[in-house]
Amino acid sequence: MLHNRFGRLAATALAGTMLMGAAACGGSEEPTTTASPGDAATSAAPGGTGPKVGLAYDIGGRGDQSFNDAAAAGLDKAKAELGLAEAKELEAGNGETDAAKEERLRLLAQGGYNPIIAVGFAYSGPLKKVATEFPEVKFAIVDDEAATGPNISNLVFAEHEGSFLVGVAAALKSEKNHVGFVGGVEVPLIKKFEAGFAAGAKAVKSDIKVDVKYLTQPPDFAGFADPAKGKTAAEGMFDAGADVVYHAAGGSGGGVFEAAKAANGKAIGVDSDQAKTAAADLQGVIMTSMLKKVDVAVFDFLKNAAAGAPKAGTTVYDLKAGGVDYSTTGGQVDDIKAKIDEYKQKVISGEITVPKEVG
Amino acid sequence: MSASGLKTGQPPVEQARSGAFKLTWRLLLIGIGALVLLLSVTRFFTGAVDLTSAGAINAAVALAVPIGLAGLGGLWSERAGVVNIGLEGMMILGTWAGAWGAIQFANPWMGVLAGAIGGAAGGLLHAVATVTFGVDHIISGVAITILGGGITEFLSKVTFAEMPGGGDTQSPPVPKPQVVSLPGIGEPLAELESQRWFLISDLAGILRGLTTNVSLFTILAVLLVPLTFYVLWRTAFGLRLRSCGERPVAAESLGVNVYTYKYAAVVISGALAGLGGAFLSLVASSAYREGQTGGRGFIGLAAMIFGNWRPGGLAGGALLFGYTDGLQLRRGGESVHALLLLVAILIAAVAVYQLVRQQRTQAAIITGSAAVIVFAIFALTDSVPGQFTSVTPHITTLLVLSLAAQRLRMPAADGLPYRKGQAK
Fold this sequence. Notes:
The complex is a heterodimer.
Chain A: H1 2-26, E1 52-57, H2 67-82, E2 86-91, H3 98-110, E3 116-119, H4 124-133, E4 139-142, E5 152-157, H5 159-173, E6 178-185, H6 188-204, E7 209-216, H7 227-239, E8 244-248, H8 253-262, E9 266-271, H9 274-277, E10 286-292, H10 294-306, E11 313-317, E12 324-326, H11 337-349
Chain B: H1 25-46, H2 54-79, H3 87-104, H4 108-132, H5 137-158, E1 179-180, H6 186-194, H7 200-211, E2 214-215, H8 216-234, H9 236-246, H10 248-253, H11 258-284, H12 296-306, H13 311-356, H14 361-380, H15 386-389, H16 392-404
Antiparallel strand pairs in B: 1-2
Helix pairs in contact in B: 1-13, 2-7, 2-8, 2-11, 2-12, 2-13, 3-4, 3-5, 3-11, 3-12, 4-5, 4-11, 6-7, 8-9, 9-11, 12-13, 13-14, 13-16
Main location (chain B): membrane
Protein name (chain B): ABC transporter permease
Organism (chain B): Planobispora longispora
């Protein structure tokens, strides 16, 4: 029957188109540059004599107003100051496999990019594998110490020290002696934030109550992108009597800010200065942010690589090295700044050792 | 999800079980009353105030709405015989379209409309694939889920990334639908709630949660449940649509254009899932964010199955999931620990029922010991660790589903291919 045969043919064609469409949209495997406006100089800087740099972002990529953007800022600075020959940026897709990440890194290495920076701990396994395949290429990974090798630099941060400072700020500002912490996913990295925050709050007021909630458990990473859950969790804390809530929940943090606004409470941002990037009507509730200066680390690494001597192994960007800090945008912590800086000096001098693990 | 496992030999007629159990208003009210009483008792003895607090009820409704809308979408489609596992994809389309529409026209209700249209587009694709071309429903659904994620990723790169405050993976803040409260009762109820009296404070908390700070979109979503029931079960259109899901050949022999009805059902299904997505980006949070559906489409599908392919049942399933999710997110350790007591009481009640009314001694002993074990866990611990609290909604739904699963009956021709003029 003609009708049936046509139907089957059309169905096959449709299914094929669907799959191709999905493949084209889902992965950014092709070595094309991203389309965001800030990318005009992506493969530019012609005539530069420096290295060809490859950068593989985690989910979100350039424009996530947080972690990845900070890495991009470091790259942009390097482009401007180090005269890079070329920079290629690729981005991870949501829910992709490790094989896709490996392929992305391999693509960069085969394309002659050296050094190559992988942004985010999700690249740990894939990077280790690819680094052994290309021993002459220098790799760096942000936020991971597990992938080690003679050609791998691990750029890690002392998030617990930065979180300690905002914990101090939270305790100083809390009138009800009750603060909260919302984590995106209960992984060791985020637990470092919790440990530092709780230690900071308790350093100021030993009897302070710290509520803790993780939105999802690994391997479910939806907790980093679910503002509805972030809002519900923070509402619960404010209802229970907390008045300052700190989040390390990536994209779910927007919900925390909303809950803080509705409850007339305060919130603390994370990774970048969120009082500058959050929605205009929410900026007022963000009293400070824990800054994780991925840009400093990325620029540092590129500078060393351009000079021909990137350091393999772990480099910790801590409070002392200026890798973590707190923000003062909005002037809400101006009155307690002297106190926070006092604690900051104590951490730098080693008088206070901030715990990395929840005690 | 094939029909084979669930055929019980009963004739595929809705009235089949009506002799055994009929849900009346009276029974429903008694059930709700008993549930509130049980919650109140648990709250009173454990001190877990969040069980019946206004905030928890408010959160429960907000978390239940997207799941319920996705479930309603699944209901429309499956009642017409098309399995819709692409709800998640249609929901994702709805999150993007909802945010885009609201920003583009600076009006939240345009976002609601756009969300429905975005989801309906996904539904139309599913209908073309499954109804016209006879593609396997599961394959098409999975493809749409993947496609939904890919298309929105691309679309937000070309739209939101260009807007101030937006990015590749998120939109700028959206205008939100208006939030309303029943005037004049919020304050007194809050006062009553804070007294911590048995039952009265609990009732006050629940009422306050339901009547204050409710988004107009939530009200719209809730109204869609009785509307769906009315259209599908009380109109000729609905009868014809359901006949396509039960026995399309018979429907065809009576002059029903099965293709048209299936198309209508699947497009409406997509629109409802799209509304669920728009709710996520417009009400539950105030911006589109990549991956924010977090599998709610699939949970909606599960809620619908749990609700036995009926609107009331799926609303109950969505509320159960929303309530337990709200509890665990807000004050997980304490509230979930208190729920253990509630579960122990419930199981003990079942044991008594088995012993007294059914004279099944052995079953009663087994159920009774289960109640004792749960109570022992409750008594010996102070709080439930975070690793367990986050799966509370899933476990609760799974438990209820597995207990109720013996009595479920899906539409007889659900998921089966249908060609016009086929013999049987």
